[in-house]
Write a structure and sequence with these properties.
The chain is mainly beta. It contains 2 helices and 9 strands.
């Protein structure tokens, strides 16, 4: 009888301990910068492993190619949405690694929109707006309590709204997403 009771308690304890799922945070708000811009972002939890990221900011670039005669540095607005699947949170938690601030590896579908609202540059420059859809892999790691970094890459499709800038037709081509960002995470209100 005592053995059955002890075995039952052990099984229930093991089940309860393993039944506790780790999860992405309810909301993560921060700012990030990298080699090509500065952004503000918010990620909110959709489920235990999925977060939805929204982002606004300024992307830096250099004009060249089909639509531009000279090479010029510029900053233009960016609006992005990105569902993310953080697939290794349980593994990180079991190894005693941090998962706060959604620190983990992720797969995502990043959608960037560069509207032709304004541009910050030396000469008057007319930027060709675009939208891109790029499946990506990435990771985020914490550096102390508030700082973090992200890196990742992906390949997808970009569509240019060239007619809006006075060209004969719009165009689409392969798009690449390479990121390296360092950021600051604001503490959520308790």
């Amino acid at each position: 009888m005592k053995k059955k009771l002890l075995l039952s308690i052990m099984i229930m304890t093991f089940t309860l301990a393993n039944g506790q799922e780790v999860s992405v945070e309810k909301s993560v708000f921060g700012i990030q910068t990298g080699l090509i811009g500065i952004w503000a972002h918010n990620e909110f939890r959709m489920s235990d492993k999925f977060a939805f990221r929204t982002e606004i900011g300024l992307d830096a670039g250099i004009t060249e190619g089909t639509y531009y005669n000279n090479s010029e540095f510029f900053l233009s607005p960016l609006i992005a949405v990105e569902p993310r699947w953080y697939y290794n949170l349980n593994k990180r938690e079991s190894k005693g690694k941090r998962i706060d601030g959604n620190s983990g590896n992720f797969l995502s579908l990043r959608i960037n929109y560069h509207p032709n609202w304004f541009v910050i540059s030396n000469p008057d420059l007319n930027i060709v707006g675009d939208i891109s859809i790029i499946p990506s892999w990435g990771l985020r790691r914490n550096l102390g309590q508030h700082f973090n970094f992200e890196t990742g890459a992906g390949i997808g499709y970009v569509y240019y709204f060239a007619k809006n800038a006075g060209f004969a037709e719009n165009e689409g081509e392969v798009g690449i997403n390479i990121l390296f960002k360092i950021g600051y995470k604001f503490k959520p209100k308790q």
